[in-house]
Design goal:
Elements lengths: L1 H17 L2 E3 L7 H4 L6 E3 L2 H6 L1 H4 L7 E3 L11 H8 L5 E3 L9 H11 L7 H15 L6 H19 L33 H11 L2 H7 L11 H14 L11 H5 L2 H6 L9 H4 L2
Parallel strand pairs: 1-2, 3-4
Helix pairs in contact: 6-7, 7-8
Length: 277
């Protein structure tokens, strides 16, 4: 789905005539991209990338863009190794997931898009990772803390030249308001159908439910409060559609949901509109 969405974005902004996009899936052959010259863009998921790595390793790419780039946070990940081996001088990582406080993962992503800028992994650990981690220790000396702060600032200055970070601040205009249109929320209250109403009354009126609510235990294991979560979940499903609680769940079988529904005349032939409010 994500790959097809990328294809739609190319079509939306560039049109289908200016550039042709090839999406790798079960119905396509990678040779149509590598051998022919019809397609200018290749869109491939990380899982599929491992399958077609041999076919694309000799292809030349002007730029490689890795969406959901936080998935490449480890240099041992096969997809990361394949991307690193592609013949290209330009790599871009896109991610909406904040980078966690793991400097090793941060290094892996930086080294993927800008190889060698932070040295090899051993150099990075000695110069940046170890001093910064040591400075976070509550018992660290002033010298260790100062060194860690210095290295953290140096790391920030170095990576700032190729990391573009966007926050929610970009949505705020010069007047302090939002660049987005006003948000409109509409709440609709929908009555339950007759089937939903009958089943709801059956569930909440069952002796087992009454005992659980009253704190007297219940369920096949007598777990009381533990089982009430299952009943609440069942009621939440019910107010959406009676068809959602006709399964063989533990909570449903305990209070005879299926048996009760079978007694409703014509239940099997009811339409979704009869089962949903």
């Amino acid at each position: 789905t994500l790959c097809q969405n990328w294809k739609k974005e190319f079509s939306k902004w560039l049109g289908d005539e200016r550039i042709r996009v090839f999406v790798i899936d079960d119905k396509t052959d990678i040779k149509d991209f590598t051998v022919g010259k019809v397609f200018s863009v290749l869109v491939c998921g990380y899982e599929r990338l491992r399958v077609c790595k041999e076919a694309i390793q000799n292809a030349s790419f002007d730029i490689v863009v890795a969406d959901e780039g936080h998935r490449l946070k480890n240099k041992q990940i096969q997809a990361s190794q394949i991307i690193s081996g592609l013949a290209t001088k330009k790599r871009v990582i896109l991610s909406g997931t904040p980078i966690q406080n793991d400097l090793g993962e941060f290094y892996a992503m930086c080294d993927l898009v800008n190889p060698g800028v932070l040295g090899n992994s051993s150099t990075f650990s000695g110069v940046f990772e170890n001093p910064i981690i040591a400075s976070r220790d509550p018992n660290a000396t002033k010298e260790v803390t100062a060194l860690g702060l210095e290295r953290a600032q140096e790391l920030s200055r170095t990576t700032k030249s190729f990391i573009l970070r966007r926050t929610s601040a970009v949505l705020i205009n010069t007047d302090g308001g939002s660049n987005l249109p006003p948000k409109t929320e509409t709440t609709l209250f929908i009555r339950m159908t007759n089937v939903q109403q009958k089943l709801y009354e059956h569930i909440v009126g069952h002796n087992l439910i009454k005992r659980v609510i009253g704190g007297g235990g219940g369920g096949t294991e007598g777990t009381g409060g533990k089982n009430i979560l299952g009943y609440i979940t069942m009621l939440k499903k019910l107010v959406n559609s009676a068809s959602l609680v006709t399964d063989d769940s533990a909570a449903g079988s305990e209070i005879g949901v299926n048996e009760f529904l079978s007694k409703i005349r014509g239940f099997a032939s009811l339409s979704p509109f009869d089962l949903s409010g």
